[in-house]
Amino acid sequence: MVQQGFNGMDANNQMLIAPETFAAPPESLTEQLFIERSLTENKFWLRIMKEHSYFLGEGFNRKDKQLIQQTDRFYHYFEEQEKRAYQTPNNVTAVRKLNEDSIQLVLGLRNFKRNLLILIVNCKVMGFNFPLLVDHIAREAEYFMRTLKKFNEGILDPIQDAIIKENVFWLKIMMEHSRFIASLLDQSERNLVKTALKFGDDFEVLLNQARDVESMLYKKSPTYPIIGKLNKDSENATHELRNFKQAGLDLIKSCQIKNVIDPLLADHVVREADHFLQMVHVLEERLKVKQQEQQMGLG
Question: Do 92 and 35 contact (CB within 8 A), yes or no?
Fold first, then answer.
């Protein structure tokens, strides 16, 4: 009887309702946005996947001929799919089919990376493919697949959730890039190594802050000022890292620093920083629209 009375007394108390109830719903994609975003992601990520295949092949022990041959095949498959992305007409049917085929191709490479990682950590495969690097590029493949699947479903995550998820993903990528760079520079390049490690530490702080916001606000009622600052902090830090990466690329290409970094890898990480900054801009524009709607009482 006491329990029944408690339930009855608090039935209308909003503080006892799950906060997820008040989360913003997913947003729908217009046909034009579906086509634009799909083609942009395909053109970017198919090249990245192609280069992952090359980097893995270069990192194997030369005795692992089957693994090298498999990465060579992946390189060819992604090169062909990348060409297709640039030739795909701007219509929904063709773009949806491109997305579907890219998902299947990326799934194969993702599985290869994940199985390779298990072999490496069990000392079954040697070479120079760091376990964290293989995990890093596997996560990127999984991100690419998730993105295309969302597009084909015709939905976007609500802006608050999108900013949280994108930042948690990309800040970890930027943190790891910084530390990979530090490990591939010759250790006599003390200032550059120190700077790269400092970037790694700075992005780890931002990542932990983003994860705190994720714990507090993911799938909850919109809290746009906090989310906007999270996005802006990431943008500012990534601009600085991007400039450091570009300066490093220029020094590598002109043979002014001691390192074992393939110039293609240096260029690769610059392009990924650029893509994150592009995503930040897209999210900022969506956030502005939502804030305006909220001020007008529409959101």
Answer: yes
